[in-house]
Amino acid sequence: MIALLRRDLVLAVRAGGGFGLGLAFFLILVALVAFGVGPGGALLARIAPGILWVGALLACLLSLDRIFALDREDGSLELLATAPLPMEGIVSVKALAHWITTGLPLVVAAPLLGLMLSLPGPGYPWLFLSLLIGTPALSVIGTFGAALTVGLKRGGLLLSLIVLPLYVPVLIFGAEVARRGAEGQALQTPLLLLAGITCGTLALLPFASAAVLRVNLR
Amino acid sequence: MSSLWEYANPKKFVETSQRVLPWVTVLSVACLVVGLVWGFFFTPEDYRQGATVKIIYLHVPSALVAINAWFMMLLASLIWLIRRHHVSALAARAAAPVGAVMTVIALATGAIWGQPMWGTWWVWDPRLTSFLILFLFYLGYIALWAAVEDGDTAADLTSILCIVGSVFAVLSRYAVFFWNQGLHQGASLSMDAEENVADVFYYPLLVCIAGFVLFFVALVLLRTQTEIRARRMRALMARERMG
């Protein structure tokens, strides 16, 4: 499993340029929002937590189809499936690799972009924390969507149609934590609910992803 | 008494549903006509809402069917995954577009009702928002069915999507309640009659609901028959080419 993780990480960094793509998209999105709503600091500060969460979510979505598609093309996915590793393990490692290459950089970059959107001071730690807790769920849910659409030739649009509704609860609680943090309100409830959703998806969704992957490789 | 699973045999299913279908259709049309005419012309106007209250006879039944259609798809998906009856998978497929249209009807009538009552076509109210999310789930489900070419693979994938989607739909429902407090009233038809609508509206509403449910059943039976026939035709054509 560790070898698989290392292989995925190395592939992501060295080949294909998928590594920085999500980050660049995140940056562009934030800039576009600023162009769209105008440079007024007060308005930007008010919507900053929501924008950063939506941006992170979309950036995450952008790289989902790479999780299985490349392996499927060169046949290594079939090899992995016949390996002694259980399918649930493969799926979990794939999700973890996706999180390390996409989610983690987004988490680190978000406070910097918050600076550009003039996010209020007390919001930074909570934005960071909410993304840190929430993005693993995004990766795991996304892996399910990617496993679902791996057999399709043009699965990209379908993938977003399927995955985005599944992202709704994570987005609601995550953005709520960031917003309440920025406004200095009590935020224990949404934070715990967000953590609960992440734990639940981490525990259960790999089974569903493995099941659909088995169907697709049949 | 024969077992329910007999109807998992496509031939038996088509035969039986063909016998049942005219009755269901006639009954549903009768219920709809009686319920709607009763509701529209023979009930008093609400003292606050005026005539707009009558949109309830379309709004509540369609919303009810929209939600229960998803439950029916969930059940059918589970039956397909556990017992591998093809009719079940095809029934789930047949129900999805009907459910999606019902969701649209509920949202549209709700908007038309909301405009005079709340002064706005749309608010980000929990009930409205969860219905919008339900609609998106329907779209994703239908799109996945359409995208996968092999029938059994598509049935497997959509079944699992339906189960995962159900869990997330429930999650989203509670999440949006947390996110925003609503304008929408509470339940209009609960078993404990605390907050129900008044009796004059209640009985025609029940008839309308019966009509909508029967209409849904009729459509699903018809569409499932069509799916079975289409599949049989493809099999015959494949055999023709082989031989």
Notes on the structure:
The complex is a heterodimer of chains A (218) and B (243). With 218 residues, chain A is an all-alpha fold. Chain A has one domain. Helices cover 84% and strands 0% of the residues of chain A. Chain A has nine helices and no strands. Chain A starts with a helix and ends with a helix. The relative contact order of chain A is 0.15. Chain B is an all-alpha fold and 243 residues long. Chain B has one domain. Helix content of chain B is 77%, strand content 0%. Chain B contains six helices and no strands. Chain B is globular and about 70 Å long. The relative contact order of chain B is 0.17. The mean pLDDT of chain B is 86. Classes of the chains: A mainly alpha (218), B mainly alpha (243).
What is the structure about, briefly put?
The complex is a heterodimer of chains A (218) and B (243). Chain A is mainly alpha-helical and 218 residues long. Chain A is 84% helix and 0% strand.
Q: For the record, give the distance between the C-alpha atoms at the N and C termini of chain A, rounded to a whole number.
A: 23 Å
Radius of gyration of chain A (Å): 18 Å
How much helix, percentage-wise, in residues of chain B?
over 70%
Mean pLDDT of chain A: 87
How would the global form of chain A be characterised? globular
The structural domain count of chain A equals 1
Order of helices and strands of chain A: HHHHHHHHH
